[in-house]
Design a protein that fits this description.
Elements lengths: L1 H29 L4 E3 L1 E10 L9 H4 L5 E4 L2 E3 L13 E10 L1 H10 L3 E5 L2 E3 L1 E7 L2 E5 L13 E5 L7 E10 L4 E3 L2 E5 H39 L4 H21 L9 H27 L4 H17 L7 H33 L2 H24 L14 H85 L5 H21 L7 H18 L3 E5 L11 H21 L4 E8 L3 E8 L21 H13 L2 E6 L4 E8 L6
Parallel strand pairs: 14-15
Antiparallel strand pairs: 1-13, 2-3, 2-5, 4-12, 5-11, 6-10, 6-13, 7-12, 8-9, 8-11, 15-16, 16-18, 17-18
Length: 646
């Protein structure tokens, strides 16, 4: 059984291998035929024009002495002499032979042949000929001529054997030139190479630099709000410098808006502007203030910018000085990188150390790009300095992220601390409030106890003591004793009624007094007439003030009963915006009022009772008056609706 399983497994494995072999073979048969040129025929330098002819000159097509060179091929870069640029160019020709297999493969695939050139470089013009016909030439600018853009051309000339592709390069004298390897074949075989190279050399650089700039705009907006955060302002300046520098590599065939001289001045000087921005960025991250180095960097950058101004120096001088500018920038960048690493180490800043390392790596990238631009290394490489923007942008985003998270954590900690402090404070306030309420309660009880004690002493106590003295002297009969006791009972009821006041209703207070004293008045043969009207609230009316009012009215009624033969008592009321008036009128015959009542209404008649009335009126801020009537007297008690506090 086990042997059968092994046999079946071997057969299935053999079948799978056979199918894979057939698939690979079929796929190889379907793979389009492409040609990768690693060598080319080369015609040496001859003076000529920058503008290419429409057809390959006969001297080139009939030339027999072609030199075979390996691709990539570079002509050396030499420093230009001082003086005016030469109107003549150094012209070289390359000839590439298209093999018949490539043409036949293209015809079998039903598509045109395409020429793919990864890179080329020259200060001048480039022209490509399919056979003898011109199919491509660069734009009018000799400097910004799409030198970093991969070339993708369709070869549409009739098939012939042999078939040649000619490449003409006209370069500024002394600037050299370079040509990479070349590919020819159908579109479906080469297009992925072209797109990948375009992405690496153009698209990725443009996307990263514009992303850098957009984040820089965000940083500028933050800096406009927070002027003390210099980090964001410096980052914006750095993003602008890197965007200008990236245009050095991403400019297309269309000429820039500015002239070649000014566009070159911007893109070249943006190199040390960016280095200056990164240096100050490191200072902000490391929280260091190296003033002398900052001023030196500003002076160096300003000097280079002025030295290379197009309005001050001729083009030949600028081109001659350009290598020295790059070399000086590299030296200064090494100094700044060392200072950045030192400051990051001293400040224990991980972000600063990462930024310094990225900046140091950029210096080596710049040296590599310099050798690439001067044709000292394989020119099929990719310029690396534009990718430095990705590293700086990443570090900035990390810094912003950490600051954002740190700010949130700080806010959360602050909120937690505030909540804890608030809870403690609320507890203290609650305890203080409880103690205050207890103290107010005790004070209220004490005040009420004192008030009740004084009231009982002045009212019931005084009446009982007077009655006791009269009994001891034998001057009080049974009727008088009953009257004294009735007065004591009335005093006690009034004291109890004063404790039941729950709202500032003066009318209800007077009605309670009528209810308590009505039986006594009726027993004395006095008719009570009630003419009270609704009164506005008296807001300061509390238990103590209510007792004062009750005592005042009680004293007035007691005096009428004791000292006048009145048979009628009328209760009336009126009010205005300032106060309320309660009026008590009697028909006691001879008016009971002080002799000077009209001239001095606030002064009552002699006697202890009426002096108490006056003192109680003063205590509550009221006014009392006695006036004569035709058959008796009238007592008026004026009460303010609101009393001044203080």
């Amino acid at each position: 059984m086990k042997a059968k399983r092994q046999c079946w497994a071997g057969l299935l494995l053999t079948l799978a291998l056979a199918l894979c072999s057939l698939g690979i073979a079929h796929a190889s048969d379907l793979t389009p035929v492409t040609t990768h040129w690693l060598a080319a025929d080369y015609a040496d330098v001859v003076p000529g024009e920058y503008d290419p002819p429409p057809r390959v000159p006969a001297l080139v097509t009939t030339r027999s002495s072609w030199e075979s060179v390996d691709l990539p091929h570079a002509r050396p870069y030499t420093v230009l002499m001082w003086g005016s640029l030469s109107p003549k160019a150094d012209v070289v020709w390359y000839r590439l032979t298209v093999p018949p297999s490539a043409q036949q493969g293209s015809q079998s695939d039903g598509g045109d042949l395409h020429l793919y050139l990864p890179r080329w470089q020259t200060i001048g013009t480039l022209a490509v000929y399919d056979g003898e016909n011109l199919i491509y030439r660069t734009g009018d600018s000799l400097v910004w001529n799409s030198f970093n853009t991969p070339l993708w051309l369709s070869l549409r000339a009739p098939a012939s054997t042999p078939r040649y592709v000619f490449i003409r390069m006209a370069s500024q004298r002394g600037s050299g030139s370079a040509l990479s390897t070349a590919w020819v074949g159908p579109s479906n075989a080469l297009q992925w190479r072209y797109r990948l190279r375009t992405w690496l050399q153009i698209d990725a650089v443009a996307l990263s630099s514009w992303a850098f700039f957009l984040i820089g705009l965000f940083a500028l907006a933050v800096w406009c709000v927070r002027r003390d955060a210099a980090l964001y302002g410096v980052f914006f300046v750095t993003s602008v410098a890197y965007l200008l520098r990236s245009m050095h590599f991403t400019v297309g065939e269309l000429p820039p808006v500015l002239s070649d001289d000014w566009f070159g001045w911007l893109t070249v000087n943006s190199l040390h502007w960016g280095a200056m921005g990164v240096f100050f960025f490191m200072l902000c991250v490391n929280r260091r203030n190296t003033r002398w180095l900052g001023w030196a960097m500003l002076g160096f950058s300003t000097a280079l910018s002025i030295l290379t101004l197009p309005i001050l120096t001729p083009a030949a001088v600028r081109i001659a000085v350009l290598p020295w500018v790059y070399d000086a920038t590299a030296v200064v960048a090494f100094v700044l990188a060392f200072a950045g690493v030192r400051d990051a180490w001293r400040s224990r800043s991980r972000e600063g150390m990462a930024l310094a390392l990225v900046f140091t790596l950029t210096i080596f990238f710049g040296l590599y790009d310099l050798t690439l631009a001067q044709h000292l290394t394989n020119m099929e490489g990719v310029y690396l300095t534009p990718y430095n923007a990705i590293g700086i942008l990443t570090i900035f985003m990390i810094i912003v992220y950490r600051r954002y998270v740190g700010a949130i954590a700080h806010v959360e900690q602050s909120n937690a601390l505030l909540e804890s402090r608030l809870a403690i404070r609320e507890g203290e306030l609650a305890l203080s409030y409880a103690r205050l309420r207890e103290s107010e309660h005790l004070q209220t009880l004490n005040d009420e106890r004192q008030r009740m004690t004084q009231d009982m002493h002045d009212g019931i106590g005084s009446s009982l003591i007077s009655a006791l003295r009269m009994v001891e002297r034998g001057k009080l009969d049974v009727g008088q004793m009953a009257m004294v006791l009735q007065e004591c009972i009335d005093d006690l009821k009034l004291s109890i009624d004063s404790l039941e006041i729950v709202d500032p209703d003066l009318l209800a207070l007077m009605a309670t007094l009528r209810f308590r004293l009505g039986p006594r008045l009726m027993a004395a043969g006095i008719e009570v007439q009630w003419r009270m009207v609704d009164l506005p609230p008296v807001h300061w009316l509390d238990a103590q003030n209510a007792l004062h009012i009750l005592r005042i009215v009680q004293e007035v009624l007691a005096n009428i009963i004791k000292h006048t033969p009145a048979t009628q008592i009328a209760f009336e009321s009126e009010f205005d915006d300032e106060g309320v008036t309660v009026r008590i009128t009697n028909n006691g015959g001879v008016p009971f009022a002080p002799p000077d009542a009209d001239t001095a209404p606030d002064k009552g008649p002699p006697g202890r009772g009426l002096s108490n009335v006056r003192s109680r009126c003063i205590a509550i801020g009221a006014r009392c008056t006695w006036t004569k009537t035709s058959d008796g007297s009238s007592f008026a008690l004026w009460l303010p609706q609101r009393r001044a506090t203080g």
